[in-house]
Amino acid sequence: MTDLQKHIEIMRRLCRKLDETGLGLKRRSNGKLDTLVSFETDVLLFMIALSNGDGQIDEDETLAISENLGLKLSESQIHRFVERQNLSDYRLQDADIPLTMQVLVDADTEIMQREMDSYRDGTAPQLSLSANGDGPYVPISILLYNIYQEVGASVIYSNNEVDAGENEEYNSYLAALRKYIEDELSYDEDQFASKLDILGDDNT
């Protein structure tokens, strides 16, 4: 399993746990939506938008999309999905923060206000990103940011023909996500970077 697939599986477990504990989307939507479906949908749309940057989704990008989420979709299936959902012109907009990111930032805010001490001493390992629950707390929204980083890179650099427009769109969108998290969690650049470093060193 790659690091990206590992992080996606961790996020899937956390999305389920957030809904079970009332911190996820299910509570906010009165049971109509759940955080896991929101996460998978947001990441899929992100990959499609990046791939659309040069006007087409090629075979290498299709493979990256399929493998990242374990969907096992063929190129023709992804093209049919894009056509049926009218996504051929879908592009990333810096101002459009994914619903899942908004939910996770809200959950992080509540967690840090109520239970920061318990995460530090490992007494609430159910949302910890470390294997034994004794590691420093990393906001779940930063794990999602890291997934966007990795997913985007896997699509943009899926072959040797890197499209400059797609790359610029990717970096601009990541910057917007990072600013949103920093603003909402009152993190400065160094604090944000230190949390990313913890994820990079994690051996979960």
Report on the structure:
The longest helix has 22 residues, at 99-120. It contains 9 helices and no strands. With 204 residues, the protein is mainly α. The chain has helices at residues 3-21, 25-28, 35-51, 59-69, 75-84, 99-120, 140-156, 164-185, 189-201. Helix 3 crosses helix 6 and helix 7 runs antiparallel to helix 8. It starts with a helix and ends with a helix. Helix content is 66%, strand content 0%.
Topology:
Blueprint: H1 3-21, H2 25-28, H3 35-51, H4 59-69, H5 75-84, H6 99-120, H7 140-156, H8 164-185, H9 189-201
Poorly predicted regions are 127-135
| DSSP helix fraction | 55-70%
Structural class: mainly alpha
Spatial separation of the terminal alpha carbons:
12 Å
Keywords:
66% helix; 204 residues; mainly alpha
Compose a concise summary of this entry.
The protein is mainly α and 204 residues long. It has helices at 3-21, 25-28, 35-51, 59-69, 75-84, 99-120, 140-156, 164-185, 189-201.
